[in-house]
Amino acid sequence: MGAGTEQARKLISDAGASRVFYFIKEIIMSQAEIRNDWTKTEISEIFHSPIMELAFRAASVHRKFHNPNEVQVCTLLSVKTGGCSEDCKYCSQSVRYDTGLKVERLLEHEQVMEKANMAKENGSTRFCMGSAWRNIRDNRDFDRVLEMVKGVNAMGMEVCCTLGMLTEEQAQKLRDAGLFAYNHNLDTSREYYEEVITTRSYDDRLETIDNVRKAGIAVCSGGIIGLGESEDDRISMLWTLSNMEKHPESVPVNALVPVEGTPMEGNKRVSVWDMIRMISTARIIMPQSNIRLSAGRNEMPTSEQALCFMAGANSIFAGDKLLTTPNPNFSNDQEMFDLLGLEPKEAFKEAKHYDVSVS
């Protein structure tokens, strides 16, 4: 048990159960601070706390920094599908695995603008473009992507890209074109990383994130659970993210969607409780970040997604496909939002302090 739990018990004993929620709120709010010096022991203590206590603490922290009724709605489009030289053992787009995926060329500018406009009309405020590249090359395709960034930015949407590794100069070109955020996931812990991918190192990933930061672009970085990793690996990944000089503005929490033909096709799907532990812990140690309920949402009923939102998730990917895997469509998400009383978060809106009482 953490120090906060023991403090709460003493206060309850001293003051009586009638004021329990008031005191717990005061303890949690006093602990909700921006820190970049978390220890793995501290994170492990949070992660392994009783799940009801964990979710309550995360929900309270969430309400201090975010409007709990707002969810950032993002759309992810694969602008260049398949043919990737990497050996990520979970990925349908690797040339090393026979997944039945058809390799496609970079989409035309007009196709991307049409998809972006459709996403905006359906309520998305962030549009992310992904390509199956190991790294960006300074060629005509990159120039075309820069034009796509300019086009989406002109629509008033937050524009994000995930294009693999990049240099500081390439990051600056994207920033100059109007890129708002860049996604580059850690995937898992440093300790487990080589069990998942060998064609680039963990430090390669961190270097790309550093280059993104230097260019003044918001960082979107999280990981995947269900890769065969241990709970210690999940904690280690969260430790790396939370101890960055500045926390990622967005932290996607993905549940592996096993793809036939990949080495991880037989992996067991993670439970909603695994997702809640990851989301809650991420929310507590990175309170200002948008915590994104990402891959795996298609297999989660509304009730399970609601629990994730209560635990601190405040961002989703919308649209019927997440790169190459199924995802809930816009109409299903709109029904869920209506049921839960949620609304899309405005574009370019930063986290701030909210005074939401616990009564």
From TrEMBL:
Keyword field: 2Fe-2S, 4Fe-4S, Biotin biosynthesis, Iron, Iron-sulfur, Metal-binding, S-adenosyl-L-methionine, Transferase
InterPro entries listed in its UniProt record: Aldolase_TIM, BATS_dom, Biotin_synth/BioAB, Biotin_synthase, Elp3/MiaA/NifB-like_rSAM, rSAM, rSAM_sf
Reaction(s) the record says it catalyses: (4R,5S)-dethiobiotin + (sulfur carrier)-SH + 2 reduced [2Fe-2S]-[ferredoxin] + 2 S-adenosyl-L-methionine = (sulfur carrier)-H + biotin + 2 5'-deoxyadenosine + 2 L-methionine + 2 oxidized [2Fe-2S]-[ferredoxin]
Any one GO BP annotation for this protein: biotin biosynthetic process
CDD domains (alphabetical): Radical_SAM (cd01335)
SUPFAM superfamilies in the cross-refs: Radical SAM enzymes (SSF102114)
Pathway assigned to this chain's UniProt record: Cofactor biosynthesis; biotin biosynthesis; biotin from 7,8-diaminononanoate: step 2/2
Residues binding [2Fe-2S] cluster: C128, C160, C220, R292
Any one Gene Ontology molecular-function term assigned to this protein's record: 4 iron, 4 sulfur cluster binding
EC supergroup of this enzyme: transferase
EC numbers on record: 2.8.1.6
Residues bound to [4Fe-4S] cluster: C84, C88, C91
Binding note for cofactor: Binds 1 [2Fe-2S] cluster. The cluster is coordinated with 3 cysteines and 1 arginine.
Pfam family of the protein (one): BATS
Cofactors named for this entry: [2Fe-2S] cluster; [4Fe-4S] cluster
The Radical SAM core domain, residue ranges: 69-297
Gene3D superfamilies: Aldolase class I (3.20.20.70)
Family, as annotated: Belongs to the radical SAM superfamily. Biotin synthase family.
Function: Catalyzes the conversion of dethiobiotin (DTB) to biotin by the insertion of a sulfur atom into dethiobiotin via a radical-based mechanism.
PANTHER family: BIOTIN SYNTHASE, BIOTIN SYNTHASE, MITOCHONDRIAL
Known partners and oligomeric status: Homodimer.
Protein name as it appears in the record: Biotin synthase
Organism from which the protein derives: Fulvitalea axinellae
